[in-house]
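thought: fold this chain, then report.
action: predict
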Amino acid sequence: MSSQHQNICETQRLLLRQLELDDAAFILELLNEPSFLANIGDKGVRDLAGARQYISLGPRASYAEHGFGLFLVQLKADATPMGICGLIKREGLDAPDIGYAFLPRFWSQGYAIEAASAVMIYAQETLGLSRIVAITAPENHASIRVLNKLGLRFDRMIQLPGAATESRLFIPDKE
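observation:
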């Protein structure tokens, strides 16, 4: 475990950093939230060992392979973990997609748009990515509002490889 967290970006209220194995308790809580299960899906994480495996095989493997992944979002003031936000390279999509999930107690306070906006700037300015897309569950209206504020618009329904249901695909407004 790293004692030195790798910070990715910060905003007025938030700090985004790479996930570490010692974030397992937070990830266990987030991935088992009813809203996460309904809108994103069941990742099968039921204990701390599973949460550490999710961090290691998911975000940390993505950092190594792609140079990006899902990052921990925490309050800058006191380092309280509140959610995840970052970029994911998915089979079936021609560009990385932006994803985010927050604990319900942090909803409706502008944190998702603040974190996602910072990730979009990081993607363009630091990683040199010219195109970011997004997917959502068809009925995830809160997430759809965030994507629209980010400058993404609904393009079409798609079914990703291995997915049981269709997702809404959002692409940059300027396309």
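thought: worth noting. The chain has a mean pLDDT of 94.
final: tokens above.
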